[in-house]
Amino acid sequence: DIDYAAAEILAFNSGRYVRFDQEKPVLKLYKFYYSNLWQGIILVADLLLLILPCIEDPPFFKNVHIAVVITLECISLTIMFIAFILSMYQQNRGILLKEAVYPYVFCVVFLLNVIDMITFYTLKLHGKSFVRWSRPLRVLYPFALQTGQNDYKIEKILRSIRFLYPTEFHLGTIRRIIRNILRTLPNIANVLFLFLLSILSFTLVGVGIIRKKGLRYPDGSLYFIDYFDTAWDLYVLTTTANNPDVMMPAFNESILYCLFFIGFLLVNLYLFMNLLLAVTFSNYKQHLQSLQKCRALFLRVLAALTI
């Protein structure tokens, strides 16, 4: 199909990786989506979301009416949602959702932002205060809108590094590495989930057997009392070099508690950490080889089309 081939050539020449849907007329939509006008609209909407905290409660500019804030946020989120739908429409969703993590990031961030916005303004209109906890998530929109399209905005951010390393720095290589890392994330999600589930399970057991002892750290803070604090302590025990500090209060109480910590370290440190490393390396290597094969094949097809 000429329309599909032309869109592929334009995307390749622009340094973008777009999984076009061959059954749709994607050329016009691709030109519109990456036109200066539409990209400018997306940029303005993104900037509005980032500067909205200046006029949101508690505001820096206190004379702005709440209706103005609601209108600006709704317009910005609507533009972001339309951009996401257009980007998804021009691509093969089956391949995209299998290979890329961006669509899931956008859906989660957008849903959390909408829930937070509705909750905030509902409570605000009833005279109650509420903290906008979704503000830090807004910085993810420029990346979440890529939906697997070769990190176009990341390329713009990294352009300045060329002047620091004009000979050694290869932006195309960095883009491929970042894209390959993002493709690897869904494959290691199962291991990460099991790792976190194991930590939470050991946390439940640890709190159950140590909480009644009323132990404290040397600085006076509570030891294995709060569930979330204990989960964080066990995570520190798995990942940092100063992990003996987490175990010492229990050891001072009874040497039998070493059985709990030995079991925890065997499962989480020596099993899950090594398993996570092996799965990450295997999937990263597999995706990298697949990417190199696809790139070589695409270059041969492009050379054949330009003859």
UniProtKB/TrEMBL annotation:
Boundaries of every Ion transport domain copy: 37-286
Major localization listed first in the record, in broad terms: membrane
Keyword annotations: Membrane, Transmembrane, Transmembrane helix
Topology class, membrane: Multi-pass membrane protein
Listed transmembrane segments: 37-55, 67-89, 101-123, 188-210, 254-279
InterPro entries named in the record: Ion_trans_dom
Keyword Membrane carried by entry: yes
Lineage top rank: taxon: Eukaryota
One example GO MF annotation: monoatomic ion channel activity
GO CC, alphabetical: membrane
Subcellular location per the Swiss-Prot or TrEMBL entry: Membrane
Gene3D superfamilies in alphabetical order: 1.10.287.70
The keyword Electron transport appears for this protein: no
Pfam families named among the record's database cross-references: Ion_trans
PANTHER family for this protein: TWO PORE CHANNEL 3, TWO-PORE CALCIUM CHANNEL 3
Name of the molecule in the record: Ion transport domain-containing protein
Organism: Didymodactylos carnosus
